[in-house]
Amino acid sequence: MSEDVRKLVGDNICEQRAKLKISQEELASRAGVHCTYIGGVERGERNVSLINIVAIARALGVPPADLLSGIR
Q: For position 3, what pLDDT does the model report?
């Protein structure tokens, strides 16, 4: 189950990033994290902390809840 949740969050982040037409590197810079971290998150390999969810959401200009969309 946790793997599916990580992938869902990663997909949501990737979708929001694509809407802004920015690279993983640009998102990482805006969020204050390393670009390899964003790649791992989007692939569902990383267990994202609440602090990083908020930082990434702010960098994307969306509410953090948007990144958790679809989780039941």
A: 73
For the stretch 17-25, contacts whose Cβ atoms lie closer than 8 Å and that sit 24 or more positions apart, written own/partner, are 17/42, 17/60, 20/60, 20/61
The verdict on domain 2-67 having CATH code 1.10.260.40 is yes
Helix (H) or strand (E) holding 45: none
Coil, strand or helix at 44: coil
Q: Is 45 in contact with 6 (CB distance < 8 Å)?
A: yes
User: At CA 57, angle to CA 52 and CA 59, rounded to 5?
Assistant: 95
**At which residue do the structure tokens 């509410």 appear?**
63
pLDDT tens digits for 1-57? 667 999 999 999 999 999 999 999 999 999 999 999 999 999 999 999 999 999 999
